Amino acid sequence: MKKFLISISVMCVLILTIAVAVTAASETDYKSLAQNVSNGLKSVFQDENAAKKSVEVAGIILGEEVSSQQFEIRAKAYELTGSKAPYTDAWNSFKIQVYEHQYAKEHGILPSEEEIKTFSSEMRKAVESSPEGREVQKILFEGMGMTADEYWNDYKIKYEAPYHLTKIKINDYITANKLEALDETTILKEVVVEKMDPIYENKI
User: Fold this and answer.
1) For 96-137, what is each residue's pLDDT tens digit?
2) How far, in Å, CA of 63 to CA of 115, rounded?
3) Is residue 195 left, alpha or beta, with left meaning phi > 0 and alpha meaning psi from -120 to 50?
4) Number of folded domains in the chain?
5) Residue 30's domain spans which residues?
6) Partners of 57 in the beta sheet?
7) Do residues 6 and 129 lie in contact, with contact meaning Cβ atoms separated by under 8 Å?
8) The whole model's pTM is what?
9) Closest among 19, 14, 76, 21 to 44, alpha carbons compared
10) DSSP state of 155
């Protein structure tokens, strides 16, 4: 079961929230859980308007645009893992993500392209090291409408690995320099979503 938890945590669109959902899953029901997640992700990944939403702007955070497609994917991930306010949680996660990206940039610790590719490759090895991991990724990729190579060599490198690795590098930097940890509560209070698409304003 431990390997399955690791697999799900590095595989899904929103790593941390998916991990929470599978914590209580047993060996016998992890397939059902993965299938439910896959079915839910299908509605956003294989939406007939996906291409249009990939260039539409859901909102702007600290000058950085968040696409409607990526926002809806993240909100759906929160919904699938039991969030009572998936749109609010999605916006909050983007606030932290953008803030951390800018913090890393200012301190010269943004991950390099090579580091991102290596990170994704290592995650793939971890997932595919067990039968459960291979089975889960197959189920999830069916919902996402991707092959394993498309996910690990393209999607993850573009949308997931940079965020995940930046967070790791910030934590390492703060620890090495004995700095005060970033306060997410303060970040969420100070960072706002500008020019939010009205379609999402009514959902938070």
Assistant:
1) 999 999 999 999 999 999 999 999 999 888 888 888 788 888
2) 25
3) left
4) 1
5) 2-201
6) 67
7) no
8) 0.84
9) 76
10) I
